[in-house]
Design a protein that fits this description.
Largest sheet of chain A: 5 strands, mixed
Number of helices of chain A: 12
Strand content of chain A: 15-25%
Largest interface: A-B, 46 and 46 residues
Strand order of the largest sheet of chain A: 3-2-1-4-8
Oligomer: homodimer
Helix content of chain A: 40-55%
Order of helices and strands of chain A: EEEHEEEEHEHEEEHHHHHEHHEHH
Radius of gyration of chain A: 20 Å
Number of domains of chain A: 2
CATH architecture of the largest domain in chain A: 2-Layer Sandwich
CATH superfamily of the largest domain in chain A: ATPase, nucleotide binding domain
Structural class of chain A: alpha/beta
Shape of chain A: globular
Chain lengths: 328, 328
């Protein structure tokens, strides 16, 4: 029987997003379930396996699947298929490729989730035909994937793209990574929330506090965005400061890599225009003239499916069939 | 007649360094002359042509030269051979390839000087066999060249590698490029001198002033280094602060690109150990653990000939002969 389907999985800290696709990279069916990372590796593995079984439950479909591509939130060994560390999942040294291949009886390929999002955008999204592009995911943290000379760039140990840990304020707040003043501590969703909490702690941010009915732990980037849209000055200044910090980080990357495209994705971008405008203004101020003229800054073309399409492509590209590799 | 020689030229703001080499990249003869940039494009062109004539003056040698590779200090269009801007030469939009080809009657290839130094180190120096490396030149300014996936990385408009204009202090000193707090304003040779001048202006730095016999305009990185070696605290703290700033910039690049090697070259490195040690300490503090474990920081293996060897390789590599391309 011809095997003409693949599975792509975007494994996140809160949800597992899985798709069944054909060899052109077209999604035939998809499903999104909670990750339930509290259940540990065994539980998450079971949830992944179940979504694959669910998508291939129709008669004969499973036999048509060639391979599975999966994106993981954290550094990993692409060749061995081992996840070194995934803080959002609470994982350390998990041989995910082996575990899933045992359960699924299919070849499984792993890649960093931001890299897959970069690949997805490059093949099907805002970056089609672009040789040098940077994909930046701004969510709870900040990650990135680099397409250089038309290919994903891994670096010496599959660790490239960590622009969230670029120092922006040498003596700034301590980051989870141990460094001080990382971009992530200034421009991410959690940085915005932290700034709002700091305000509340100092007796400011009364509108923010009121909007959570006095429960500051309920402050989210979306709440800050809502207040900013209603012209709350403090909320607005939080968004602008975060956008400005992101702009500094992106300017540094643009000066170093001279890309023709920067694609921004991730949940925190949904905070709206003030964040984007502050970012863009800062990038224009801090980039070399030629580099600024040669680059465009755009939102992800595939919405929250950038990583999913990348995972589908991964399942395809590692296979030896020319048809599969050439069509997607 | 078999053409089995090439010319490599490293064109700098103060000197023109030219070599005649065989197809294995071995230097047969070399010459260094003042650039005399005050003479303008015509004068510098004449100086370049004269060094080439001088090196090939022996009977029959000129007929054996295949091509000329030349490194230029500034952004340029590699394909068209046009130098966009070379501040140290006072050049803007100079069609150097065309000008030199007319005079020399030989094919001439241009490349950014830091890129050529990266190529030189990759082929003959500290980076032989290394797939992903960053070459950083610390002199009056700070420039860089990136070897990624085994090849020089140019970016969208041949502008990649500008790590001197990475923002390190968002509200710091204004750089020549217009941005504030660039790495170059904190870690370069001229940054060290500026810091010493600031001290003198504030009535401090008395040893520095004394060493110049009261002429602060004579302060140089080497003078600062001499005083630091004699344990002058202010001179030492200038070197350490500059090294620390360089470390922040390199940590950012290492986190982003996960290289296995960073090669440091350029005159300002001659200031000695305190600068290097401060740099290395800061890199170790600010890099992700895995990236730090995977990278080495080393001085250039070819001394001040990194760019010269790169220029020789350039002359070779653009030629179609397999012999030339394969041997070097």
């Amino acid at each position: 029987m011809t095997k003409n389907l693949v599975i792509g999985i975007d494994l996140g800290g809160t949800k597992i997003y899985t798709a069944l696709a054909n060899l052109k990279g077209e999604i035939i069916a998809e499903v999104k379930v909670p990750t339930q990372s509290a259940l540990g590796v065994t539980g998450v593995r079971q949830n992944i396996v179940r979504t694959v079984e669910h998508l291939t439950a129709q008669a004969g479909l499973k036999g048509q699947v060639r391979a599975v591509g999966i994106g993981v939130p954290g550094p990993l060994d692409v060749k061995e298929g081992v996840v070194y560390q995934a803080p959002n999942l609470g994982w350390r040294k998990v041989p995910l490729k082996q575990l899933l291949e045992e359960s699924l009886k299919l070849p499984v390929y792993l890649e960093n989730d931001a890299n897959l999002a970069a690949i997805g955008e490059h093949l099907k999204g805002a970056g089609v035909g672009v040789k040098n592009l940077i994909y930046v995911a701004v969510g709870t943290g900040i990650g990135g994937g680099l397409i250089l000379n038309g290919q994903i760039y891994h670096g010496a140990g599959f660790g490239a793209g960590e622009l969230g840990h670029m120092t922006i304020e040498p003596e700034g707040r301590t980051c989870n990574c141990g460094n001080k003043g990382c971009l992530e501590t200034l421009a991410s969703g959690s940085a915005m929330v932290q700034k709002a909490l700091d305000l509340v702690k100092n007796g400011q941010g009364q509108n923010l506090l009121a909007a959570t009915k006095g429960e500051p732990q309920k402050i989210s980037p979306y709440l800050i965005a809502q207040l900013a849209a209603a012209r709350d000055k403090e909320a607005l200044s939080i968004l602008k400061a975060a956008g400005t910090a992101l702009g500094i980080g992106l300017a540094n990357v643009i000066n170093l890599l001279n890309p023709s495209l920067v694609i921004l994705g991730g949940g925190a971008l949904k905070v709206g225009l003030p964040y984007w405008e502050a970012m863009e203004k800062e990038v224009s101020r801090r980039t070399m003239q030629a580099a600024w003229q040669q680059v465009r800054l755009v939102p992800a073309g595939l919405g929250d499916r950038s990583g999913l399409y990348g995972a589908i492509a991964l399942a395809c590209q590692y296979e030896t069939s020319d048809v599969c590799r050439q069509t997607f």
